[in-house]
TrEMBL record:
It comes from the Bacteria. Gene3D superfamilies: P-loop containing nucleotide triphosphate hydrolases (3.40.50.300). Keywords: ATP-binding, Nucleotide-binding, Transport. Residues 5-245 form the ABC transporter domain. The keyword tRNA-binding does not apply. This is ATP-binding cassette domain-containing protein. It comes from Micromonospora halotolerans. PROSITE patterns: ABC_TRANSPORTER_2. GO terms for molecular function: ATP binding. SUPFAM superfamilies: P-loop containing nucleoside triphosphate hydrolases (SSF52540). PANTHER family: AMINO ACID ABC TRANSPORTER ATP-BINDING PROTEIN (PTHR45772:SF7), CONSERVED COMPONENT OF ABC TRANSPORTER FOR NATURAL AMINO ACIDS-RELATED (PTHR45772). The keyword Nucleotide-binding applies.
Length: 247
């Protein structure tokens, strides 16, 4: 089976620092893949390279076998890579619904449905369905800037899904959430349709092990190990490198 995403020899340098040094990564369709490692390991940098926000100095990124190395974030989003940022990236002055609507518009085009009003209607249906799914329908008219952090995270997740991604890149989605909100997030991601593959950067290993079938450990810009959660838990070098306790 062709991998949904494969990255080969990804290298990013900042001066003399190699943030990423020849990293390979393969994600199969529908896979739940976690990226863990100590602070500064290169996790966010790798998400930035895969999402097109950072141009790698070396290496290639293929999406379903097609080379997307030179494409920027918008072009990659159109090809099915969605991104959830460490700090929720929402438009504060737009309402919750408008935020999701804006995210849904670029993909709300089907053959024969090119007319702008048809496109807006399709995007509105997508947005309303997603708002119901993430539990924000009741506050759809509230400006996103008025929301608490956890609700902004929900808006961003709806925005990420509005682009109908085949791969969702999530950068520490549980950061700053309450225990109840983490519970909601875990259940939401667990029940996400397998049409969407997930690459999750997360320090909370309980969340990683609850959601992911494959784990890659980065350290100092290099891949230390890739395996199932059980393999990663049992790996001596990984336990040493990831001092928070992989067991
Ligand atoms: N724009 C930049 N300029 C210079 N150095 C950078 C830049 N972005 C990242 N780095 C460095 O690259 C390395 C990898 O950073 P990155 O944020 O990818 O790590 P991380 O694994 O996501 O860490 P954390 O878990 O703390 O978020 C770090 O040493 C960081 O300081």
């Amino acid at each position: 089976m062709t991998p949904l995403l494969s990255a080969h020899g990804i290298t990013v340098r900042y001066g003399s620092l190699a943030a990423l040094d020849g990293v390979d990564l393969r994600i199969m369709p529908g896979q739940r893949h976690a990226l863990i490692g100590p602070n500064g390991a290169g996790k966010t940098t790798l998400l930035d390279v895969l999402g097109g926000r950072t141009r790698a100095g070396g290496g290639r990124v293929l999406l379903a076998g097609r080379d997307v190395t030179r494409l920027g974030p918008a072009a990659r989003a159109r090809r099915g890579i969605g991104r959830i940022h460490q700090r929720p990236a929402v438009w504060s002055t737009l309402t919750v619904r408008e935020n999701v609507l804006v995210a849904a518009l670029p993909r709300a085009v089907r053959p024969g449905r090119w007319h702008p009003s048809a496109r807006r209607r399709a995007a509105a249906r997508t947005a309303d369905a997603l708002l119901a799914r993430v539990g924000l329908a009741g506050i759809a008219g509230v400006p996103a800037g008025h929301l608490a952090h956890g609700q902004r995270r929900q808006v961003e997740i709806a925005m990420g899904l509005a682009g109908r991604p085949r791969l969702l890149l999530l950068d520490e989605p549980a950061a700053g959430l309450s225990a109840v909100e983490v519970g909601w997030l875990t259940e939401f991601l667990r029940t996400l349709p397998r049409a969407v593959a997930v690459l999750l950067v997360e320090h909370r290993l309980d969340l990683v092990y609850a959601l992911c079938d494959t784990v890659t450990v980065l350290r100092d810009g290099r891949t230390l190990a890739t395996g199932t959660p059980a393999q990663i838990r049992a790996s001596g070098p990984v336990r040493e490198a990831y001092a928070e306790g992989v067991a």
